[in-house]
Amino acid sequence: MTLKILAGTALFLLLGYGGIHSQWPARLGLDGTGVETAEQALREAALARLSDAGIAWANVTMNGQKAVLSGTAPDAAAAEQAAAVVRRSVWAGGYVGGGITSVDISRVRFETMQDAAPPVAAPFTWSASVIDGEAVTLVGFVPDDRVRLALVAEAESLFGEPVEDLMQVARGAPEGDWTRAASLSLAALSQLETGQVDATDARFSLSGLAVDDAAAERAREPLAAYPAGLTITVAINLVPDGLVEGQPARDREADEPVAGE
Question: Is residue 68 in some structural domain?
């Protein structure tokens, strides 16, 4: 009898949890919208609550109902405070309360960390990628946290999507306006359906798929203003009509040098 009661209770809790979280976009008042729209609503609510609390250092990205905090906090206590604000930004928070179920602070840096010089990256590598115009990832080394946050914000603005930020601060950036080069590369990448920017020291490359010739041309336009001392090569393919997943695209450009050399 006891086992039946326990089994029934477990089933009730499981069904209740599934009912809450399988319909979480609708519970945000976003009936008929996708998960991406619901994630954006959660992010905006979290940023608004952080602003109300006077917490200016924190940035928020969403992975479903999980919030990821980044930025440089004064100390660990400040990071925990920001996490608590974000968790409660929509309803009570947590796995039962819905809204934002959990907050990841593993990417938060602390001001005390800045006392030690960052490591030297040799080579100084960086990359940005986009898949199907949605999944945007930034990886590699940047000169400082200011540049890191600026690139994340710019990517979110260009792509209209949350960005997965896997960048780290390091010394060893090449001479020249590296930040400007990375920014222009992001602008070019945003015109591609799927693509990647790779940088090794002063050499950048852009490759990917454009939906048509006009999109490919738009991708090249920002690169005309590439800063002196830094170079970029471009390899853009066009997506064929009726492209089947896994089918190679037609080659239209290959290792075409662009301004900046």
Answer: yes
